Amino acid sequence: MKKMLTVTTLTLSLLLSGVGLAVPQHASAATTSQDDKIISTAKSYIGKVKYVYGERNPDKLIFDCSAFTQFVFKKNGISIPWGSRAQAKVGTKVSSISKLQKGDLVMFSVGTKGQINHVGIYVGNNKFISNTKSSGVVISSMTSGYWSTRFIEGRHL
After folding, report:
1. What's the family (predicted)?
2. Which of 8, 18, 30, 73 has a C-alpha 20 to 30 A away from that of 149?
3. Does the annotation count 65 as an active-site position?
4. What is the set of domains in the chain, with CATH numbers?
5. Catalytic one of 26, 57, 117, 118
Protein backbone atom coordinates (compact mmCIF):
# COMPACT_ATOMS: atom_id res chain seq x y z
CA MET A 1 0.00 0.00 0.00
CA LYS A 2 2.82 2.39 0.95
CA LYS A 3 4.64 1.54 -2.32
CA MET A 4 1.47 2.28 -4.35
CA LEU A 5 1.01 5.60 -2.56
CA THR A 6 4.64 6.53 -3.27
CA VAL A 7 4.29 5.64 -6.99
CA THR A 8 1.03 7.61 -7.24
CA THR A 9 2.57 10.63 -5.50
CA LEU A 10 5.65 10.50 -7.75
CA THR A 11 3.51 10.20 -10.89
CA LEU A 12 1.34 13.14 -9.88
CA SER A 13 4.41 15.22 -9.04
CA LEU A 14 5.92 14.54 -12.47
CA LEU A 15 2.67 15.34 -14.26
CA LEU A 16 2.08 18.55 -12.38
CA SER A 17 5.64 19.74 -12.88
CA GLY A 18 5.48 19.07 -16.61
CA VAL A 19 8.34 16.59 -16.61
CA GLY A 20 7.77 13.79 -19.05
CA LEU A 21 5.01 15.58 -20.91
CA ALA A 22 5.24 15.84 -24.66
CA VAL A 23 5.21 19.41 -25.91
CA PRO A 24 3.35 19.83 -29.20
CA GLN A 25 5.41 21.04 -32.16
CA HIS A 26 2.65 23.43 -33.24
CA ALA A 27 0.22 25.03 -30.85
CA SER A 28 -2.29 25.68 -33.63
CA ALA A 29 -5.34 25.67 -31.39
CA ALA A 30 -3.83 28.39 -29.22
CA THR A 31 -2.71 30.54 -32.14
CA THR A 32 -5.60 30.05 -34.55
CA SER A 33 -7.03 33.41 -35.49
CA GLN A 34 -10.67 34.33 -34.90
CA ASP A 35 -11.18 34.36 -38.68
CA ASP A 36 -9.83 30.82 -39.04
CA LYS A 37 -12.13 29.69 -36.23
CA ILE A 38 -15.11 31.24 -38.02
CA ILE A 39 -14.17 29.47 -41.25
CA SER A 40 -13.57 26.18 -39.44
CA THR A 41 -16.96 26.47 -37.75
CA ALA A 42 -18.68 27.12 -41.08
CA LYS A 43 -16.88 24.21 -42.77
CA SER A 44 -17.91 21.87 -39.96
CA TYR A 45 -21.52 22.22 -41.11
CA ILE A 46 -20.94 21.12 -44.73
CA GLY A 47 -23.44 18.33 -45.39
CA LYS A 48 -25.30 18.93 -42.11
CA VAL A 49 -27.44 22.01 -42.78
CA LYS A 50 -30.68 22.29 -44.72
CA TYR A 51 -31.55 25.49 -46.60
CA VAL A 52 -35.04 26.96 -46.23
CA TYR A 53 -35.64 30.57 -47.25
CA GLY A 54 -36.60 32.76 -44.30
CA GLU A 55 -35.87 30.01 -41.78
CA ARG A 56 -33.69 30.24 -38.68
CA ASN A 57 -33.86 27.02 -36.67
CA PRO A 58 -30.50 26.20 -35.04
CA ASP A 59 -31.92 23.18 -33.17
CA LYS A 60 -32.72 21.43 -36.46
CA LEU A 61 -29.88 23.07 -38.45
CA ILE A 62 -32.32 24.66 -40.89
CA PHE A 63 -31.26 28.11 -42.10
CA ASP A 64 -31.38 30.52 -44.96
CA CYS A 65 -28.03 32.03 -46.02
CA SER A 66 -28.03 34.90 -43.53
CA ALA A 67 -29.28 32.78 -40.64
CA PHE A 68 -26.35 30.45 -41.33
CA THR A 69 -23.77 33.28 -41.23
CA GLN A 70 -25.45 34.65 -38.10
CA PHE A 71 -25.28 31.18 -36.49
CA VAL A 72 -21.60 30.71 -37.37
CA PHE A 73 -20.58 34.13 -36.07
CA LYS A 74 -22.62 33.62 -32.88
CA LYS A 75 -20.81 30.31 -32.29
CA ASN A 76 -17.64 32.44 -32.27
CA GLY A 77 -18.96 35.12 -29.91
CA ILE A 78 -19.88 37.71 -32.55
CA SER A 79 -23.42 39.04 -32.82
CA ILE A 80 -24.67 40.04 -36.28
CA PRO A 81 -28.25 40.65 -37.45
CA TRP A 82 -30.38 38.27 -39.49
CA GLY A 83 -30.90 39.16 -43.15
CA SER A 84 -28.33 39.66 -45.90
CA ARG A 85 -29.16 43.36 -46.29
CA ALA A 86 -29.00 43.89 -42.52
CA GLN A 87 -25.62 42.13 -42.44
CA ALA A 88 -24.46 44.44 -45.26
CA LYS A 89 -24.67 47.31 -42.77
CA VAL A 90 -22.27 45.89 -40.15
CA GLY A 91 -18.52 46.35 -40.10
CA THR A 92 -16.48 48.14 -42.73
CA LYS A 93 -17.32 47.98 -46.44
CA VAL A 94 -14.87 46.15 -48.72
CA SER A 95 -15.51 46.99 -52.38
CA SER A 96 -13.03 44.70 -54.10
CA ILE A 97 -12.58 40.92 -53.97
CA SER A 98 -8.81 41.48 -53.91
CA LYS A 99 -9.11 43.37 -50.60
CA LEU A 100 -11.20 40.76 -48.78
CA GLN A 101 -9.79 39.07 -45.69
CA LYS A 102 -10.61 35.62 -44.36
CA GLY A 103 -13.76 35.74 -42.25
CA ASP A 104 -15.27 38.75 -44.05
CA LEU A 105 -18.94 38.61 -44.95
CA VAL A 106 -19.48 38.62 -48.73
CA MET A 107 -22.68 39.88 -50.32
CA PHE A 108 -24.14 38.87 -53.66
CA SER A 109 -27.07 39.63 -55.92
CA VAL A 110 -28.93 36.51 -57.06
CA GLY A 111 -32.24 38.04 -58.06
CA THR A 112 -32.81 41.70 -58.71
CA LYS A 113 -29.58 43.01 -60.26
CA GLY A 114 -27.55 45.05 -57.79
CA GLN A 115 -29.72 44.12 -54.79
CA ILE A 116 -28.04 42.21 -51.97
CA ASN A 117 -29.91 38.96 -51.32
CA HIS A 118 -27.25 36.35 -50.59
CA VAL A 119 -24.43 36.30 -48.03
CA GLY A 120 -21.51 34.04 -47.24
CA ILE A 121 -18.14 34.05 -45.49
CA TYR A 122 -14.86 34.63 -47.33
CA VAL A 123 -12.44 31.71 -46.84
CA GLY A 124 -9.50 33.01 -48.89
CA ASN A 125 -8.18 32.33 -52.40
CA ASN A 126 -11.25 33.96 -54.00
CA LYS A 127 -13.59 31.42 -52.39
CA PHE A 128 -16.45 31.70 -49.93
CA ILE A 129 -18.69 29.39 -47.94
CA SER A 130 -22.44 29.82 -47.78
CA ASN A 131 -25.71 27.98 -47.32
CA THR A 132 -27.41 27.58 -50.71
CA LYS A 133 -30.84 26.42 -51.78
CA SER A 134 -29.43 23.91 -54.26
CA SER A 135 -26.60 22.33 -52.26
CA GLY A 136 -26.73 23.37 -48.61
CA VAL A 137 -23.42 24.59 -47.16
CA VAL A 138 -20.77 24.68 -49.89
CA ILE A 139 -17.51 26.41 -50.76
CA SER A 140 -17.73 28.28 -54.07
CA SER A 141 -15.45 30.32 -56.30
CA MET A 142 -16.13 34.05 -56.44
CA THR A 143 -14.19 34.55 -59.67
CA SER A 144 -15.52 31.83 -61.95
CA GLY A 145 -18.88 30.25 -62.64
CA TYR A 146 -22.21 31.36 -61.23
CA TRP A 147 -20.93 33.78 -58.56
CA SER A 148 -18.33 35.60 -60.67
CA THR A 149 -20.67 38.40 -61.81
CA ARG A 150 -22.81 38.58 -58.68
CA PHE A 151 -20.44 39.97 -55.99
CA ILE A 152 -21.68 43.29 -54.56
CA GLU A 153 -19.42 43.95 -51.55
CA GLY A 154 -17.75 42.49 -48.51
CA ARG A 155 -17.98 43.53 -44.87
CA HIS A 156 -15.01 43.34 -42.52
CA LEU A 157 -16.08 42.93 -38.89
Report:
1. Belongs to the peptidase C40 family.
2. 73
3. yes
4. 32-156 (3.90.1720.10)
5. 118
